[in-house]
Task: structure prediction
Amino acid sequence: MPADILVLMTDQHRADWIGAYGASWVRTPNLDRLAAEGTIFTRCYTTSPLCMPARASFLTGQYPHNHGLWMNAGRVKEVAGTYLHALRGAGYRTCHVGKSHLHPHGGGTDLRTEEPYMRALGWDDIFECTGPLSTQNTHSILTDWMMEHGTYQTFLDDYRRRRETGVGQALWPSPLPEEMHPDCFMAESAIRYIEGSDTSQPLYLFVGLGGPHNPFDPPERFDRYRMEDMPPPLPPDEPPEWLPDCAREHQREMMRHNREVTPGQWLRMRALYSARVEQVDHLMGRVLDAWFARRGRDSWVMFWSDHGEMLGDKNRCSKSVFYEASARIPMILRPPKGQEASVSNSLTSLVDLTAAVYEASGAGRETNVFGTSLMEEANGREAAVSEVDERTMVTDGRWKLVVDPDGRTLKLFDGHADPAEAVNMAGHPDYGDEDARLREQLLRLLLRTADRQHREVNS
Result:
């Protein structure tokens, strides 16, 4: 029988905010123990620093320019092309618990109306919830549970107060009891499903938590991080004199946000983010314990996040930019029965994890999956590409290029000489060769992935 597969996913989780990745200031014992039995990938990039495009990429093994989602809108059109159908063909039962964001949320809709779409994607069992912000205006089993326990109005009032207070001032823990926190419901739902699962059939279980996505509202028990222990955010940058006009305008736009937030407020925000990271680590630990108790240790366990969080770097919050804090993601792969801890510094992409799912399951690989399995012995990929809102990034692991829809260079960074990405080399006469080389790598990847897209044919 094929090995079970458990996928654990957090939302908006920086790669450098995990103990196993070197973050000594945050407590992540469960991710650290997962890393101690597997491989951590230190240079993995998301296909898009935004929720829906990245999640669609993991499901399909394709880039936004293939599946068509460049923003938090739309849905996967080729539902038969997800890896879930291949897993079901290999005998797996597939289950989704928690946040999916594979279709638009909001507007007072109910996630249960999307069950036909979710089943068409290949899910057998569905326990779908929204992330923190969408829980305010999207109904689901989560909001039913909150209303049943009398906490939904408290949650809504707290989030309204946070909106009215603003980014730099809404810096308090959740008023909800720990056991009533939305992420707790998602973890408990996964645990109940695991405990009742049929061990005679291989299981693929995806568990997506809502944290540490903003607003950073940990239960009070986890709010114990000191501001002075937090690494300070990277400062904003001034455009250098050699930038062309398009790059200069872009950089000024990047740096104009949140100027009213004080250094102390950024550090308090980072302390709350650390508390949310510890909370989701705690919940994932409980899911892992239930999984190993019921399904055994002879299982694949995969951990990842869709994108990072700027957390004050360059005076920015959130994501949707190609700075390292937003575009680089954590990824941990634990094989059945575990292994000696290892670290891969090879350049990897989110679509490589999709390829690993195919290989772990023994299912036949789709030709439109554009990743290379993380389990293969290799030196990594030549280039990683990420796309959002009509902008495209390509990196070779050292140099990073960002271009606009017209192909104009917006950013060019040397990650070795300038790890803080403080000096934009776009337009600098000494680095034209690097710009040209990265453009050639981008073109090669686009051509390799474009020629195998699905094409509808007449019958």
